Amino acid sequence: MTKVAVVILNYNGRDYLKQFLPSVIQHSKEAEVIIADNASSDNSVAFLQEHFAEIRCIELAENLGFAGGYNEALKEVEAEYFVLLNSDVEVSDGWLKSMVRFLDQNGDYAACQPKILDFNKKDHFEYAGASGGFLDLYGYPFCRGRIFNTLERDSGQYDEPIDIGWASGACLAIRSKVFFEAGGFDQDFFAHMEEIDLCWRIQSNGHKIKSVPSSVVYHVGGGTLSKSSPFKTYLNFRNGLSLILKNSPLKALLWKLPVRILLDWIAAIKFLLDGGPKHSIAVFKAHGMAFIRLFKTLNKRSNAQKSITEPYSIVFRYFVKKENRFADL
Which end of the chain offers a freer environment for a tag, N or C, measured as fewer CB atoms within 10 Å? Predict the structure, then answer.
């Protein structure tokens, strides 16, 4: 068994592999680098065979999304630590050593993430994780360095390693044993927030998660699904409801759920007023599907629910109090 496996899930990301895989290979000498291909149709596999024949490629028969793709691929990987890495990420020297060293020295931590900066604006944090993720009172995710669409400039203000609520799936280092004991990703999420759900579950099982900003990567973002896509809006709102239905302590869920639904509907109205009717419709479709799956989702609840949410509403703090920096909270 190898100690560290860097596993890149690829779906029609041939150009990203061409651009970023060399940096991953260069700066990951201590790991096995593996590509898991999610039934791409852009000749990604042929490209790998021609240009990176030394890299192991796990070919999946169909596109199972982020959640299902990783679940299936990781069954074929034997390593103490999995490092899940998006195909549109440029890594830096020492990115892997910092996270592996942290996990080696801290057995009570199940996972960690690096500082994630914007590839196209490298002095700013990137949306999908920044310097560590959190959830507000109603289950809305935000990050140290990113609140909603406000991305802070990185001036070293969040370079202190801290415990976090969730680590980004764009670059996630996790103990393989913990991943499998928790049941892996929930495949019903397909994509978006599945890593938050996993992190919530492993914390309910008594583990902790850390931000390790001494490790730095640069993420393009939207490599598989554009931020402007209504389907992405659908996934975010559907999975957001599923997240709190699965993981919130029952007493808290009874009053959180109605407020969350109301806030989501307000968001749908805002989409409509801003000229995005397809995004508005996507919110209501997401809620419809979340409730069609209600009993299936509730059946996934465990008996060891733990609250990992912050004791305030990020919606109120951001939109009403105008607090758009993590340090303001």
Answer: N
Model pLDDT, residue 171: 98
Mean pLDDT of 26-31: 96
CB 210 within 8 A of CB 118: no
Q: What is the pTM of this model?
A: 0.96
Helix (H) or strand (E) holding 143: strand 141-143
Nearest Cα to Cα of residue 112 among 216, 242, 212, 12: 212
| 132, β-bridge pairs | none
As given in the structure block, the two tokens for residue 49 are: 């065979």
pLDDT band per the 50, 70, 90 thresholds, residue 304 = confident
Tracing tokens 């680098």 back to the chain, one arrives at: 33
Helix ranges, the chain (H): 14-26, 44-51, 65-74, 95-105, 176-181, 194-204, 230-247, 250-273, 277-292, 294-298, 314-319
The C-alpha atoms of residue 110 and residue 108 are separated, in whole angstroms, by 7
Q: Print burial letters for 170-197: b (CB count within 10 Å at least 16), e (below 16).
A: bbbbbbbebbeebebbbbbbbbbbbbbb
Reported as a single tens digit per residue, the pLDDT across 274-292 is 998 999 999 999 999 999 9
Cα gap 101→85, rounded to integer Å: 18
Closest CA to 205 of 299, 304, 59, 274: 304
Residue that has been written with the tokens 């004791």 in this structure? 311
157, 109, 97, 102: which is closest to 131 by C-alpha?
A: 157
Cβ density class 248-267: b for 16+ within 10 Å, e for less: beeeebeebbeebeebbeeb
* Residue 16 backbone phi and psi in degrees, to 5: -70, -40
Residue spans of the domains in the chain: they are 2-219, 230-328
In the prediction, which pLDDT does 47 show?
97
Q: Does domain 2-219 have CATH number 3.90.550.10?
A: yes
Strand partners, 255: none
pLDDT digits (tens, 9 = 90+) for 142-172: 999 999 999 999 999 999 999 999 999 999 9
